[in-house]
Amino acid sequence: MKKLIFIVAALVLLAVSGVAAWQVYVPVHEDNMSFNAYEDLRQFARIPTPEPTIQPDTSSSPDFTPTPSSGPEPTLPPTPQVDFDSLRAVNPEIVAWLSIDGTNIDYPVAQHSDNDYYLHHLFTGEWNSSGCLFMDCSNQAGFSDLHTIIYGHHMDNGTMFQKLMDYKDQSFYDEHPTAQLFTPDGTYTVEFFAGYVAGVDGNAWKLDFASDAEFGKWAENAKEKSLFESPVTPTASDRIVTLSTCSYEFYNARLVLHGRLVVD
């Protein structure tokens, strides 16, 4: 009898250990899968390396006095080139590529027929808790709406939209006041003007406006809620993009970051 009890106890312990090991393995495996998938996709959104500027060697001429340059004017930094044809071959639901300089937010944006699919699927289609950045299913894919929403997970490993949490601090906004949004039809700068924590029953995700005046008032109210001060003042003629992710100040809290679209 004692031997039977020992065997049963050992089997129970083994089962519990197996479940615990599986619970550790799955998140790590999913994190690695997500990281590798999006790292592979970044080959389609690369920033060209600028040509280095060669300075004259004055080490052997201590009395050398440089003359005003007669060469070409300095050029602007090269802009990222996004290969939407290749991204579309991976996933035809691609609508944009979003990047915030100086952060790890550098991802494709997809759009499905509902707002659930990309909560648990990578851009490449595999089931994964990291999901994919996605546009609200009610929006027009070309960012022509007055207000367009992009959702993304707040991942504990620091990926996806986790970095948006830092916009609760003025200093972070001061260093990262804009994002770059690349679409098949053009490139935009997103000038952030407000960021705050809201409940899911709030109007931060409002898409339908009866008039331009109502839209302008909504944007004005959003700016008044902001946790940071911004010199950007939205108007009723602007198009606004909102980045939305989970926050944890209270049940169903969300961090929203509003910005106006400016054509590059």
UniProtKB/TrEMBL annotation:
The keyword Zinc does not apply. The keyword Metal-binding does not apply. The gene is srtB. The active site is at H153, C246. Residues 49-83 are annotated as: Disordered. It comes from Acutalibacter muris. NCBIfam families: sortase_srtB. Residues 1-21 form the signal peptide. Residues 56-68 have a biased composition (Low complexity). InterPro entries: Sortase (IPR005754), Sortase_dom-sf (IPR023365), SrtB (IPR009835). One of its GO terms (molecular function) is hydrolase activity. Its EC number is 3.4.22.71. Residues 69-80 have a biased composition (Pro residues). This is Class B sortase. Keywords: Hydrolase, Signal. It holds the Pfam family Sortase.
